[in-house]
Amino acid sequence: MTVMQKQHLLAYLGYYTGTMDGAFGPKSRAATEAFQRDYGLTPDGVFGPLTQARILEVIASGETPENTAQAADGPDWWDEIQYFKQDEKGIACPCGRCGGFPVEPAETLMRLADRVREAAGAPMCPSSTVRCQAHNDELSGSVKNSRHLSGKAMDFCIRGWGAARTLALVRQQPEVRYAYAIDDSYVHMDVN
Ligand SMILES: [Zn+2]
Ligand SMILES: [Zn+2]
Questions:
Q1: CATH fold of 75-191, please?
Q2: Residue ranges per domain, the chain?
Q3: Tens digits of per-residue pLDDT, 116-133?
Q4: Which ligand is the nearest neighbour of the Cα of 97?
Q5: Superfamily for 3-63?
Q6: How far apart are CA 112 and CA 33, in angstroms?
Q7: How many other C-beta atoms lie within 10 A of the C-beta of residue 10?
Q8: How many angstroms does the Cα of residue 68 sit away from the middle of ligand 1?
Q9: Distance from the alpha carbon of residue 143 to the mean position of ligand 2, in angstroms
Q10: 103 alpha carbon, closest ligand
Q11: Which of these, 178, 94, 181, 180, lies nearest to 138 by C-alpha position?
Q12: Which residues have CB less than 5 Å away from ligand 2 (the ion)?
């Protein structure tokens, strides 16, 4: 398997967002490590035969990461979230068919969002958090195993900020598993 094929497989599952350049650099290594961590392999960042076999198996079966199978948290922690309400725009799945919350937004994600909002000192505008599978599938550019499906990802902007500045702030937060700029304003961030 070529490096470019590996990048395509990692990108397909949402782990790799770099360019398909055929060079196994830091982004490829980080993506490999994240995949390994999610699917029960030793997270060494080396895309060897075991990782290759596992990623093909995951793609063929559509199985989801092992660590998304935790029980949903009780609702009381919402009281400690300062800047967000569960029913505000951009938190529930907006498709109109799934009831909005096929899963609860993850506590770790909402606490993270709260802290980012606090640190930014400016209004944060979530555009997408929870998604049902049907809605995720109909969005262009979404990945099948998107963390939005498990309530562990948020797309948002900070009013008046560009994506690069927002991304820099997000990446300072230790809970962030992965973050990237969607366009000039919006950033995707997710947690484990
Ligand atoms: Zn939905
Ligand atoms: Zn996203």
A1: Muramoyl-pentapeptide Carboxypeptidase; domain 2 (3.30.1380)
A2: 3-63, 75-191
A3: 999 999 999 999 999 999
A4: 1
A5: PGBD-like superfamily/PGBD (1.10.101.10)
A6: 22
A7: 23
A8: 18
A9: 9
A10: 1
A11: 94
A12: 153, 155, 188
